[in-house]
Amino acid sequence: MPIELSLVIPAYNEAARLPPFLTTVKAYLPRALGERYEVIVVDDGSDDALEAALRPITAAWPQFTLLRHAHNRGKGAAVCTGVLAACGQLVLVADADGATPVEEEGKLRRAIMGGALLAVGSRYLRAEGQARTRLWYRDACGALFARAARLLLALPVRDTQCGFKMFRRDVGRHLVGLCREQGYLLDVELLLWAQRFGYETAEIPISWQEVPGSKVRLVRDGWRLLHGLWRLRRAFRAGRPVVRPLPAAHSVGSLGASR
After folding, report:
1. What confidence tens digit (pLDDT) does each residue in 53-85 have?
2. Domains present along the chain, CATH in parentheses
3. H-type alpha helices, 59-119
4. Per-residue H/E/C for 152-219
5. What is residue 87's three-state secondary structure?
């Protein structure tokens, strides 16, 4: 039976936040896709007994796979590992905290079915029924970074860092195979490559609720991310190696049909 959707979750020391999210995933995906899905968690060198915390949920779950990095390499590296291991026609990358309900994947899936090659969840676009909760100072810092990314890199996406993105598997493998960023800036580099090749990207408003325990430290990581934007700007203006885009998009068949 072909796998229609692969859910990839990068995780580092998420023994507290990931189990509740996986519980909702385990309840939702069989309703939406029957057995035609897989869940891949990439443990990025955790030292908080993550595997033991997941065992009660995943022990009798044949669609679940846990991959491990021997040491912490960064969120971007974990995303790349998961995407390259995915077998689904579509790949959804979601943060381990479950800030975005897994049910929101349907919005991204419809965008892909409508012709987009990438669908990016957005906390900044507004839509009826969208719920969004975030601490004001984190919201302000996130908005500042988003504005800097748009100004420095001319990206059309307002929310580059939202951890809820979907793409065709071949598109995802192509893009992560080009990326060099190992950390949080993978999202930006991936979108830069997509823009370079003219891959249609849809930005979709989604519901999002901040979950305590973020690994992003606003001061230290914030300055590193802003410096990284300048580094990416210089690199892409100087010209990355010439590579070929993917062939024309092919149909993803009946993806999205529920049982």
Report:
1. 999 999 999 999 999 999 999 999 999 999 999
2. 5-135+162-178+193-211 (3.90.550.10)
3. 75-85, 105-113
4. HHCCCCCCCCCCEEEEEHHHHHHHHHHCCCCCCCHHHHHHHHHHHCCCCEEEEECCEECCCCCCCCHH
5. coil
